[in-house]
UniProtKB/TrEMBL annotation:
This is DUF72 domain-containing protein. It comes from the Bacteria. Pfam families: DUF72. InterPro entries: DUF72, UPF0759_sf.
């Protein structure tokens, strides 16, 4: 993932911003002290990106990946519309506790820019629904040039989204964050319609670390910089997620990217170990022995 990549990550202040006051208010409205539902994964499962992750002779990458992680941020669905049969095959290959978090297609978000997309959305949902209980939160990633002048399009999309199907939305244009009134307007819209407000932790776009949750879901897309600071940044996230869980956060969906994805499983293993200890969960540490070997390469 190249979004937000910088040449010198050591010059970036990666300190997590304070939790937004409305996040605290929202989380305080939920019951406290519950063990959260935690899903951690990578963005891809193919060997070309996750070099060294798969043991020699691995025949089915998804089958192996899904025994190491409990989720995947499914970016493949952004690039083309997959038929129902493909979703059924993915479902059949994965364990019962595994979840897919698929991205809406670029036809919807980038080509048509949320206008006249009802038919495309319906086809997408009809097909993705074949994941059944393994369908996690679907997420919409808007183009970086989709600014707040398009608020009405975003509003219409949110209002028309089918109730009961979890959705997270990632806005990227700086205008959504720079104008306080605009920020308040779209985050209130998300909160009213139970839409998760995606947090993106990447070096070159610290404005996207708004720390404003809009429902009982922290949907975090973490982008490492292939730098030693990637690990201390994850330490900070563990502390923050523990704070949010203590306030009432139930659902943590955390997806780890890298500029060079080869290191993503290493970061994920490190992060999961910390989460297990701090949150009292018991996620599998992905491929521990193999990751140790990778770290020596």
């Amino acid at each position: 993932m190249k979004f937000g990549k910088v040449a010198q990550p050591e010059l970036i202040d990666f300190t997590l911003p304070e939790t937004h006051p409305k996040t605290i208010e929202l989380l305080n409205s939920y019951e406290k002290s519950r063990t959260p539902n935690v899903y951690v994964g990578c963005a891809k499962w193919n060997k070309a990106d996750l070099k060294g992750f798969y043991p020699r002779g691995t025949k089915d990458e998804l089958e192996y990946y899904s025994k190491q992680f409990n989720s995947i941020e499914l970016n493949a669905t952004f690039y083309r519309q997959f038929p129902a049969e493909q979703f059924e095959k993915w479902k059949a290959k994965t364990p019962k506790n595994f979840k897919f978090f698929p991205k809406l297609g670029q036809e919807i978000s980038h080509w048509k820019r949320l206008q006249g997309v009802q038919d495309a959305v319906n086809v997408y949902l009809d097909n993705a629904s074949h994941l059944q209980e393994k369908l996690g939160t679907i997420f919409l990633q808007l183009h970086a040039n989709f600014g707040n002048k398009n608020f009405e399009r975003l509003q219409n999309f949110v209002v028309s989204w089918p109730k009961g199907i979890p959705l997270a939305i990632e806005v990227r244009h700086p205008d959504w964050f720079e104008d306080i009134m605009v920020f308040e307007e779209f985050t209130q819209l998300f909160e009213e319609h139970n839409i998760a407000n995606v947090l993106v932790d990447t070096a070159g776009r610290r404005d996207m670390m708004h720390m404003r949750l809009t429902n009982n879901e922290a949907f975090v897309r973490y982008v490492g910089a292939n730098h030693p600071s990637d690990y201390t940044r994850l330490d900070d996230w563990v502390v923050r997620l523990k704070e949010w869980n203590d306030l009432g956060l139930d659902n943590i969906h955390f997806f780890i990217h890298q500029n060079l994805e080869v290191e993503s499983p290493l970061l994920a293993a490190y992060f999961i170990k910390k989460l297990n200890k701090e949150l009292g969960v018991d996620l599998k540490i992905p491929n521990e022995e193999n990751n140790q070997q990778m770290s020596l390469l």
